[in-house]
Amino acid sequence: MSATDSQKKRIRELVTTLNCASEKYYAQDDEIMSNFEYDRLYDELVSLEAETGYVLANSPTVNVGYESVDELPREKHDKPMLSLGKTKDRNELREWLGGHEGILSWKLDGLTVVITYFDGKLAKAITRGNGEIGEVVTNNARAFINLPHSIEYKGELVIRGEAVISYSDFEQINSTIPDESARFKNPRNLCSGAVRQLDPSVTAKRMVRFFAFNLVSAPGVDFGDRHMAEFEFLKEQGFDVVDHMIVTEDTIISSIEEYERRIRTYDIPSDGLVLLLDEISYGESLGMTAKFPRNAIAFKWTDETKDTTLRKIEWSASRTGLINPVAIFDPVELEGTTVSRASVHNISIVRALKLGLGDTIRVYKANMIIPQIAENLTCSDDLEIPSSCPVCSGATYLKENEGTAYLYCSNPGCPAKKLGAFTQFVSRDAMNMDGLSEATIEKFIAGGMIHSFTDLYHLDRFRDRITGMEGFGEKSYENLIASIETSRNTELHRLLYAIGIENVGVATAKLICRHFGYDPEAIAHAGEEELSEIDGIGSVIASGVCGYFADPVHMRIWNELLGEITLADMSTEVGEQKLAGLSFVVTGSLQHYSNRNELKEVIEKLGGKVTGSVTGKTECLINNDSTSNSTKNRSARELGVKVLTEDEFIAQYID
User: Fold this and answer.
1) CATH of the domain at 620
2) Residue 399 pLDDT exceeds 70
3) Are 109 and 238 members of one domain?
4) Are 421 and 378 found together in one domain?
């Protein structure tokens, strides 16, 4: 089997198209192609994968077994992973080449992983660790979105590469976290945590990508003594290889300048470049120092710094009440652009920098992109932390999160908080009111048209004002009112999520509603102890729910909203809870259900729980291929857990 470039390109196109269609259909209730068209493209993908042996990790034909582990096992690397010597001097790199050709590539800023394939199948993945011993993350690597599960080469292939999360994916992930203090600080930290998860399903949601940068071994393949040929071989096998180019003494300076231009818009985090001697035997003949190999060297960007004067701190209130400090300073030129402001992130950093207005500060661009304060040369340390919110003048308070201090507004009626609350209330997973963007909500709040959630259901009182607003007309107004009227018919878990109880997301809202039989009165008067006993609801969430409904204002809002809407009859959802307290694992293809999610919903409606891995607490493993030697089947046999076919499960637990 051999995949041509055109076949690989077509496979990637099909995977992207089919995954997009599935996301639209299952997550957004939207259909961008017919079932016939989906099946036709799916069959084409299956045929191409079978013909070429080229299967991507995120292919819809791959059923990734997201098996959680209790801890990550550790394993010694066959070959120690040494660090590279470093320089910031471009001329030193030219001299280092010594007349030989080199390969210049990005030094990606993520987590290094060593991956092994046996007989064309992904078999093992280990993090760099301390260079000698790393953590085994094989299940997580199977969730890297661009990593092949199978390749053409059938020998034992060992490669090294960088697991990374792009800036755009990082921003998208952070945008789903309402509390800004809980957001991830940078892509590298997010990636490191994602790769080292105990639950691979979490890794799968983090959009981790893998870029190969070194072929450790591929017995039987002749690379003509060139690392460049290794890179080409890896690309032929379907790997994304770190961006690279051949350089000489004459071209290396201009090549570095080219990378320097590109990094300003490059979507993958990078903190420098790597220069590798292309000739393998010559590079190996140089040996290594006690710490570094001599066939490669890292180039670190020299951070351009400028001294300037801090003029003010702008305190910016967010939707959650978090107040962020932003430093405003005299404009300076950095990396080709003019900058005059930089986020200081939190109060702990303000204190560490000992800031004061008028201080001389040294600024730079982290990774040549994000303006930061490197140090404070004056350290007057007399900056006043505001005692009142810049938006509403309400009292502020400090709150610590894992040792870091943040400033918050205490006023529940703060317009900044109100905007965030309304934005969540109308969102797709909540009341799903189309036509109410954040900008529109802000105008309605400023115009005094909405003060509480129930006001949204009476916007018809302001017809003339709304149709006269910029960007609105009769048609926009009618569509908005129609969407709001449609939202009156909803499900209780949507309402529970919509009102914005801290830490209560969509999944948590469903758990609570199901436990209380979709009874809004029972939920509002539930005790903390009973809530804590719900599987998946801890004491923090239980305390938050009880605290919310203990507030008479919140209780009034809840009751007013119930008077505005009609709740769907969820009696079939509640049903007889005959599977209460039982945990099941589902694997493999199904015959009676369209997919595993459908069977999962049936089990959950009956009070059961579906988990990703077999443990001693598992009631049974559902697998139509009950005699297979899969990991889940082996675990079930070792733990004495029943393995039932779909028919056997239905007969014993459903009928």
Assistant:
1) 3.40.50.10190
2) yes
3) yes
4) no
Final residue belonging to a domain, choices 514, 544, 574? 574
Choosing from 445, 464, 487, the residue where a domain stops is 487
Q: Alpha-carbon distance 198 to 184, whole Å?
A: 18
Output the DSSP codes for 494-526: HHHHHTT-TT--HHHHHHHHHHTTT-HHHHHT-
d(CA 537, CA 511): 8
User: Token digits for 15?
Assistant: 């995977």
Inter-residue contact 335 to 317 (CB < 8 Å):
no
Find, among 477, 457, 459, the residue nearest to 467 by Cα: 477
What would the pLDDT profile of 156-210 be if each residue is shown by its tens digit?
999 999 999 998 888 888 877 765 556 777 788 889 888 888 778 788 888 899 9
CATH number at residue 502: 1.10.150.20
On the question of pLDDT at 358 being above 80, the answer is: yes
For 91-126, what is each residue's pLDDT tens digit?
Answer: 999 999 999 999 999 999 899 999 999 999 999 999
Check if 107 is active-site: yes
361 CB-contact burial (10 Å; exposed 0-12 / middle 13-18 / buried 19+): buried
For residue range 19-68, list pLDDT tens digits in order: 777 665 444 434 566 555 666 787 788 888 888 888 887 787 764 444 44
CB of 492 closer than 8 Å to CB of 566: no
Indicate which residue of 8, 107, 609, 632 is catalytic: 107
Give me the DSSP letters along 129-144. TTSSEEEB-HHHHTT-
Q: Is residue 68 part of a domain?
A: no
The answer to whether 492 and 570 are in contact (CB under 8 A) is yes
Find the domain containing 545 and state its range: 492-574
Number of domains in the chain: 6
Domain CATH for 38: 1.10.287.610
Residue 138 CA to residue 126 CA, distance in Å, equals 7
CA distance 127 to 131: 9
What pLDDT digit, counting tens, does each position of 475-495 carry?
889 999 999 999 999 999 999
d(CA 122, CA 604): 33
